[in-house]
């Protein structure tokens, strides 16, 4: 005796089978593998003078449609490989608010995402030079403390004291294995340079300031205040050492705030900070701090175009490796291979 399913049950079974076999719908969230964030772009995303995002856009997103995110000032772009990117805005508040809006937006699945926060920065001439590219080992918030005028304290003593209550958000150590991978993949990259940058370096007596650009690691100091001059530079190094971090090598304005958002929302150690140096954090011995902050025409550092190109060239090596080895990276940073 034969048995036939009712027509409505057969139709339901067929519908379920087709759904299981069909690809994800357009309403499914984008599975993000690597997210690249920059702080500003000078003009358009392509075809004009490049800011922090343009080279990333041209490498990964030129065929991508913009995705509008409520709470973020600029659209997100994603390619078919799971690489996404956006311009967050400058400063701790703007950039971290953008990151939170994007992470919490249901259009994206960020549960396994690696983050590269990239942009231009300053560097102390004792430890870096124009067009250097640096991966952060530590992030330090420059602002969370007490400060006073030098003449109101003990002569020659530090003019900064940490404020209690910020211990968990003023210092972040980035995943050492992730930094190790970054240096193994990019540490020997050939970086672009310019004649104007080479000439500018010669104004500084420090050996580090005069050398050719390279890929390096160290502490990235986050501060909304654009601190400047040898005194402020020394204070930044003092704070880095006070907190137990590596040498201060980069001054920037965003990533400690972004780190706090990523830690609160995702809780994993997949954040990288990648910065290129476009200026020194102080003048040379023949100029005052104010003269260096407001240079005469033709007296700027040079090398900006080369530096933003270097950042994307270095960072893309990391992005491409993660994407091409996703089965090994999805569940966490793989062990570093022996060299």
Automatic annotation (TrEMBL):
InterPro entries: Nucleoside_phosphorylase_sf (IPR035994), Pur_nuclsid_perm (IPR009486). GO terms for biological process: nucleoside metabolic process; transmembrane transport. GO terms for molecular function: catalytic activity. Residues 1-26 form the signal peptide. Transmembrane segments: none annotated. The keyword Chaperone does not apply. Keywords: Signal. Coiled coil: none annotated. This is Purine nucleoside permease. It comes from Microvirga aerophila.
């Amino acid at each position: 005796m034969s048995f036939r399913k009712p027509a409505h049950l057969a139709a339901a079974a067929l519908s379920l089978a087709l759904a299981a076999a069909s690809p994800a719908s357009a309403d499914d969230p984008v599975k993000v593998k690597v997210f690249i964030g920059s702080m500003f772009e000078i003009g358009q995303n392509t075809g004009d003078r490049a800011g922090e995002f343009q080279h990333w856009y041209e490498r990964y997103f030129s065929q991508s449609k913009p995705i509008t995110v409520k709470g973020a000032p600029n659209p997100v772009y994603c390619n078919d490989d799971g690489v996404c990117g956006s311009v967050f805005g400058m400063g701790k508040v703007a950039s971290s608010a953008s990151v939170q809006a994007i992470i919490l937006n249901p259009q994206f699945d960020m549960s396994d995402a690696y983050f590269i926060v990239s942009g231009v920065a300053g560097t102390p001439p004792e430890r870096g030079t124009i067009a250097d590219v640096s991966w952060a080992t530590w992030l330090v918030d420059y602002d969370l403390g007490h400060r006073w005028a030098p003449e109101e304290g003990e002569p020659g003593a530090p003019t900064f004291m940490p404020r209690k209550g910020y211990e968990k958000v003023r210092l972040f150590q980035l995943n050492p294995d992730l930094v190790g991978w970054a240096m193994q993949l990019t540490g020997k990259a050939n970086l672009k340079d310019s004649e104007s940058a080479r000439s500018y370096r010669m104004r500084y007596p420090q050996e580090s300031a005069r050398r050719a650009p390279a890929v390096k690691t160290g502490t990235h100091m986050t501060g909304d205040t654009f601190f400047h001059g040898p005194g402020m530079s020394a204070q930044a190094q003092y704070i880095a050492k006070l907190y137990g971090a590596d040498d201060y090598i980069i001054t920037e304005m965003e990533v400690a705030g972004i780190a706090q958002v990523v830690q609160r929302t995702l809780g994993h150690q997949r954040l990288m900070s990648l910065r290129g140096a476009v200026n020194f954090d102080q003048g040379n011995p023949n100029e005052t701090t104010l003269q260096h902050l407001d240079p005469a025409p033709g007296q700027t550092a040079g090398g900006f175009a080369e530096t933003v190109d270097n950042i994307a060239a270095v960072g893309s090596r990391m992005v491409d490796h993660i994407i091409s080895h996703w089965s090994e990276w999805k569940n966490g940073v793989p062990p570093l291979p022996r060299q």
